[in-house]
């Protein structure tokens, strides 16, 4: 009879990670579908000749298409970098994809800043600030990994991908996504607010278990 509690505890410890893994996959799939909807229903229509932004974007097409390619690369590779299975079973591939992720961030941010110079209102500054935050968090994640600080790498990588999400979430075609109906000035400040919230959420996700874990009583092993 004494062995049954330990077996039960082992079963619970095995079930818990499995449930977390399932929830994690569901969350990534949902995010992927939302990102796809944002691209198809919000970003693609901007490229149509009837859109007021078409002429400006077409004149910047040599910057726009590298920006889109870099952003899509980061968007796709990000979830793979958070895969524990990939890190443990194939660390070499994890490092290779990480380098591709960094290249994608560079290719996405630099054209974005150059394009934003021609935008009105506060938009050039908000785009530049967001790009700087994206680059800084990505660089910090890279340096932490290179120096073997993997816990810090995980934290900064979460922040880096949170900045990636700031370019997707405001464009999701949902009733509460009013970004596309805002004025350029309001949209500029809205992008900065989204970046702040995204970084906060990233820290909450990374530290959630530590924040919510109950303190052990004295004398309890």
Structure, described:
It is built from nine helices and no strands. Helix 5 packs antiparallel against helix 6 and helix 6 runs parallel beside helix 8. The N terminus is likely disordered. Helices cover 77% and strands 0% of the residues. It has one domain. The relative contact order is 0.09. It is mainly alpha-helical.
Sum this structure up briefly.
The protein is an all-alpha fold and 221 residues long. 77% of the residues lie in helices and 0% in strands. 21% of the residues are buried.
Biggest beta sheet attributes: none
Rounded Rg:
21 Å
Helix content: over 70%
Give the CA-based shape: globular
Strand content: under 5%
Work out the number of β strands: 0
Give the SSE layout.
Layout: H1 3-46, H2 54-59, H3 61-81, H4 84-89, H5 91-116, H6 123-146, H7 150-165, H8 184-206, H9 208-212
Helix pairs in contact: 3-5, 5-6, 6-7, 6-8, 7-8
Keywords, separated by commas or semicolons:
mainly alpha; 9 helices; 0% strand
């Amino acid at each position: 009879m004494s062995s049954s509690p330990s077996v039960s505890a082992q079963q619970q410890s095995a079930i818990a990670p499995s449930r977390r893994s399932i929830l994690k996959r569901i969350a990534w799939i949902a995010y992927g579908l939302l990102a796809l909807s944002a691209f198809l229903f919000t970003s693609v229509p901007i490229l149509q000749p009837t859109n007021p932004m078409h002429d400006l974007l077409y004149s910047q097409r040599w910057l726009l298409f590298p920006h889109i390619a870099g952003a899509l690369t980061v968007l796709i590779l990000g979830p793979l970098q958070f895969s524990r299975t990939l890190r443990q079973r194939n660390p070499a591939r994890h490092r290779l994809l990480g380098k591709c992720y960094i290249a994608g961030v560079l290719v996405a941010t630099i054209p974005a800043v150059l394009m934003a110079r021609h935008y009105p209102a506060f938009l050039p500054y908000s785009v530049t600030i967001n790009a700087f935050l994206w680059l800084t968090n990505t660089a910090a994640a890279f340096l932490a990994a290179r120096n073997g600080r993997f816990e810090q790498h995980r934290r900064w990588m979460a922040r880096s991908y949170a900045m990636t999400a700031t370019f997707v979430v405001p464009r999701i075609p949902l009733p509460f996504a009013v970004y596309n109906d805002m004025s350029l000035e309001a949209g500029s400040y809205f992008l900065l607010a989204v970046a702040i919230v995204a970084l906060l959420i990233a820290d909450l996700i990374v530290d959630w278990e530590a924040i919510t874990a109950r303190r052990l009583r004295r004398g309890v092993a």
